[in-house]
Specification:
Residues 1-21 form the signal peptide. This is Tripartite-type tricarboxylate transporter receptor subunit TctC. It comes from Aurantimonas endophytica. Keywords: Receptor, Signal. The strands form two sheets. Strands 1, 2, 3, 4, 7, 8, 9 and 10 form an eight-stranded mixed beta sheet that branches. Strands 5-6 form a two-stranded parallel sheet. The model is unreliable at 1-19 (pLDDT under 50). The protein has helices at 2-23, 40-56, 71-78, 93-100, 136-146, 160-172, 184-192, 203-211, 259-273, 276-284, 297-318, and strands at 29-33, 60-64, 86-90, 112-128, 151-154, 177-180, 198-202, 215-220, 246-254, 288-289. It folds into two domains: 27-121 and 247-318, Bordetella uptake gene, domain 1 (D-Maltodextrin-Binding Protein, domain 2), CATH 3.40.190; 122-220, Periplasmic binding protein-like II (D-Maltodextrin-Binding Protein, domain 2), CATH 3.40.190.10. Helix 6 links the parallel strand 5 (151-154) and strand 6. The chain has eleven helices and ten strands.
């Protein structure tokens, strides 16, 4: 009798879960951004939130949960109910966190379900506008000569600007004085104000300032020049052929979220990335939306796993860790 009762109750629960997935969504969805408002990941989130909202029939509310290099937001979403109403957008930091943080409270590969890749954003090496070198070729010997006399701003440990700085200093075998901030916004403000010398950040956050003459652009970290910044040379052109990095972004749901919901959100993402306005806006920022094939759970999972393995030896060699 107890077995029959338990079985009946289980079937009711399964039926309720199935109905819930079929009805999804019935309320607004929160997209958690692990960095401050106004930063590059926030920009990407807000670009896709509106067209995804239209496709899903419910508003996607962007919520900024900054701090600890994105791990506060990651923890919040990892511990959220797996019902599709709280999802995470994160960048390359999702793949570096397992090595960078000694006490990471979640595992990116087991505590989340990848939904799809959003975009690959190039990086730009920029400086305060009155910095003496005018080209990257001129800047390189200055960095090597002055070393820690130069200040390098980043948005905090684990941020894209922090990772780009690690690669730059490793490539030049020279350490600058790093100045971490609570987000890209305040770091950019101080760079524009001349309080710090250099930064390397995503085109989604730097293109406007470069075009407006508020900062000095030295190089883009891509194999080819960007249509949005045709006058800015590549790092390879500037004498750093092996210094190439882009920042990929992806959406995640908590582990346990139903396959049906993940696929539904992924389909909405794919639709949003094909929107002409979104494509044009990404282009203005020096990047492009992910392809329909990349904006899938399978492609995203493969990228995450491969990037964890790529970054592990780089971070271990740099010897930079966070608690």
């Amino acid at each position: 009798m107890k077995t029959t009762t338990w079985l009946g109750a289980s079937l009711i629960v399964l039926a309720a879960g199935s109905a819930s997935a079929q009805d999804y969504p019935t309320q607004p969805i929160t997209m958690v951004v692990p960095f401050a408002a106004g930063g590059p990941t926030d920009t990407v989130a807000r670009l896709i939130a509106e067209p995804m909202s239209r496709e899903l029939g419910q508003q996607i509310v962007v919520q900024n949960v900054a701090g600890a290099g994105g791990t506060l937001a990651g923890t919040q979403v990892a511990n959220a109910e797996p019902d599709g109403y709280k999802i995470l957008i994160h960048h390359i930091g999702m793949s570096t966190a397992p090595t960078l943080y000694r006490n990471l409270p979640y595992d990116p590969t087991t505590d989340f379900l990848p939904i799809g890749l959003v975009t690959d954003v190039p990086m730009t090496v920029i400086g305060r506008k009155d910095l003496a070198p005018t080209t990257m070729a001129e800047l390189i010997p200055v960095i090597k000569e002055q070393g820690d006399q130069l200040t390098y701003a980043n948005a905090g440990i684990g941020a894209a600007s922090h990772l780009c700085g690690l690669l730059l200093m490793t490539a030049l075998d020279t350490q600058m004085t790093t100045v971490p901030y609570q987000g890209t916004g305040p770091a950019m403000t101080d760079l524009i104000g001349g309080q710090v010398d250099l930064m390397c950040d995503q085109t989604t956050n730097t293109t406007g300032q470069i075009k407006g003459g508020e900062v000095k652009a030295y190089a883009v970290t891509t194999k080819e020049r960007l249509d949005a910044l045709p006058d800015v040379p590549t790092t390879a052109e500037s004498g750093l052929p092996d210094f190439e990095v882009s920042v990929w972004h992806g959406l995640y749901a908590p582990e346990g979220t139903s396959t049906e919901i993940v696929e539904q959100v992924s389909a909405a993402l794919q639709k949003a990335l094909a929107d002409e306005t979104v494509i044009a806006r990404f282009g203005d920022l020096g990047t492009a939306p992910s392809s329909q094939e990349e904006a899938t759970p399978a492609a995203h999972a493969e990228r995450l796993t491969s990037q964890i393995e790529l970054w592990r030896p780089i971070i271990e060699q740099a010897g930079v860790y966070a608690d």
